[in-house]
Design brief:
Length: 559
């Protein structure tokens, strides 16, 4: 009887609080107890149900990430990595780095052929593309901040994997499009591949993934980094050209990083430091805007847009040269964030005339949004922003045989050769060269903002190099242009990353403004969408407004 009483009430199942076969989706809402904005309605619902059962925002972050690893295989993961930025109700900051690291057998030139040419195919697909996964270590490093036992936080994910869940049209299409790649880069048949095409309304059941999650439930982080899961992962590596070893897995650790903090027009912004470039880019750009009266220039006026474009160009040029894993490369953080330095840099451009990046060879932008962000807030005042990724869509497309989870293709975020663009067109050099155990540079930018030392904004997004841009523009839209949270999130975004020297604009970006930018000398490139921003704004009275990006199937839940 006691045992039964202690058994947590099942949260996921047909007719239960989270019904995997019923898809309801809410794009935004106003709540007062707690809210989650994530890429999938079932994952957001899991997070909120955990809070209703006594968990806080950290409990919800763990449960939501695990649920995403099941229902959002394109980016949710246990085979990838990410960053968690948190602030407890008492004001303690947590910067948790669970980024993948290069395997010990990795080396600087591992993706160069005999002639020294970069082979992006190898850094982007299949077994050799994967860094050592960090997500599970990240979940357990979050646990001390949570209130509920881990088995309660992981059970919803296990149930979602066993019951299966109903696929949307987009999810079915994503799996169908990737079928050949799954077959090419995996050595065994996985749950993602079936003989016929996936249809909207089909159920995706993941039994092997459920077993892996149960090992994590029962053995903790060792259920992933040691024992059967580690064996299966290393066996998968050995069937092809993979190099992740048992020692790599055993020695992986999440690291605590000191968040970047700065003032922007009376608000305290908190960002993620290296090995993400995100916090530095957000800080550099916002500092370059600090003395500009954007509000007076007007929302999406050619003047305010040009200032943002030129500030981004500068920040991304610095990224390419100076940013990498701080444990391997001395990142000049103070210099990069020095107000005098940034002010001087901003004097370089002429109003009304496009600046120019150097002619260095650079590639194209990727249009994908295959990372995922979750923003969570609870009534106690805990704030959590997590961005997590496999890198590209479905990562390396390698499913670990017998373990049912996808591996990342994060090695491509290193500069595999100086000046050679990665899949987001980002270039780099020594600072971000490959070395054993080093963490590859990221753009992920989970961000928190305080006003009068009280929670105000929780924001983040996928989108590769466009991530800091989306975060910056969402913040500027809220703080300078006073747009509503829904407008701040949904209004068309634009992006410059130094190289390639083009301004990417979303297809809904006003045509007249596009024409003006072209007249100034900018080269424009249209993108279907930039980012999938998950935003929570808390007003002075403590009312919580959660907004999921209209660009995807993202959803909020709250109470
Ligand atoms: O860490 C990074 O910056 C990339 N691996 C993020 C990838 C991403 O956002 C995918 N979506 N486009």
């Amino acid at each position: 009887m006691l045992g039964f009483a202690l058994q947590a009430q099942q949260l996921v199942g047909p007719g239960k609080a989270v019904d995997p076969y019923k898809r309801t989706s809410q794009k935004s809402g106003v709540f007062n107890q707690g809210a989650v904005a994530s890429a999938h309605p079932l994952a957001s619902q899991v997070g909120v149900e955990i809070m209703k059962r006594g968990g806080n925002a950290f409990d919800a972050a763990i449960a939501t990430q695990l649920a995403l690893a099941v229902v959002y295989p394109i980016a949710g993961n246990i085979g990838g990595g990410g960053f968690l930025l948190g602030r407890t109700a008492k004001g303690e900051l947590l910067g948790l780095d669970f980024r993948e690291k290069a395997p010990m057998a990795a080396s600087r030139d591992m993706y160069l052929d005999k002639q020294g040419n970069a082979q992006n195919e190898l850094s982007q697909n299949g077994h050799l593309a994967s860094g050592v996964p960090g997500t599970v270590a990240g979940l357990f490093a979050t646990l001390p901040y949570a209130k509920l036992p881990f088995n309660e936080l992981i059970q919803p994910a296990i149930d979602l994997a066993e019951f299966g869940f109903t696929l949307s049209q987009n999810e079915a299409t994503g799996l169908n499009w990737t079928k050949q790649s799954f077959q090419k880069y995996s050595t065994q048949v996985s749950a993602f591949v079936k003989n016929t095409e996936w249809q909207e309304g089909d159920t995706l059941v993941q039994k092997e993934l459920a077993s892996t999650l149960k090992r994590i439930r029962d053995k903790g982080a060792k259920g992933f980094y040691r024992g059967k899961t580690a064996q299966l992962l290393v066996a998968e590596m050995s069937r092809r050209n993979g190099i992740i070893s048992k020692k790599d897995l055993r020695e992986y650790e999440a690291k605590n990083r000191t968040p970047i903090r700065f003032n922007y027009k009376g608000n305290e912004v908190i960002g993620f430091p290296p090995p993400s470039s995100g916090g530095i880019i957000v800080a550099q750009v916002l500092n370059m805007l600090a003395d500009r009266k954007l509000e007076t220039l007007g929302f999406q006026s050619e003047k305010s847009v040009q200032i943002l474009i030129e500030a981004e160009r500068i920040a991304f040029a610095d990224r390419a040269e100076h940013l990498g894993d701080p444990d391997y490369w001395q990142v000049p953080v103070e210099k990069l964030l020095n107000t005098g330095y940034l002010t001087t840099r901003m004097t370089d451009f002429t109003a009304g005339k496009a600046g120019k990046s150097s002619d260095t060879k650079a590639g194209n932008f990727s249009e994908s949004s295959e990372t995922t962000h979750l923003s969570i807030y609870d009534k106690e005042g805990n704030m959590v922003a997590v961005t997590t990724t496999l890198n590209g869509a479905y990562g390396s497309k390698t499913v670990v045989g017998g373990a049912g989870f996808l591996l990342n293709n994060e090695m491509d975020d290193f500069s595999i050769k100086a000046g050679v663009p990665n899949m987001y067109g980002a270039v780099g050099s020594k600072a971000n060269a490959i070395a054993p155990n080093k963490r590859m540079l990221s753009s992920m930018s989970p961000t928190l903002v305080l006003k009068d030392n009280k929670p105000y904004i929780i924001v983040g997004t996928p989108g590769g190099t466009t991530i800091p841009t989306s975060v910056i523009q969402t913040l500027v839209n809220l703080i300078d242009f006073k747009l509503s949270p829904v407008e701040a999130n949904s209004s068309p975004k634009f992006h410059h990353q130094w190289l390639p020297d083009v301004v990417a604009v979303e297809k809904d970006f006003p045509q007249a403004l596009q024409d003006r930018l072209i007249a100034m000398g900018y080269t424009l490139r249209l993108l279907d969408s930039i980012g999938r921003t998950e935003l929570i704004v808390i007003d002075a009275k403590g009312t919580i407004q959660a907004v999921a990006d209209i660009r995807g199937e993202d959803a909020v839940a709250g109470f």
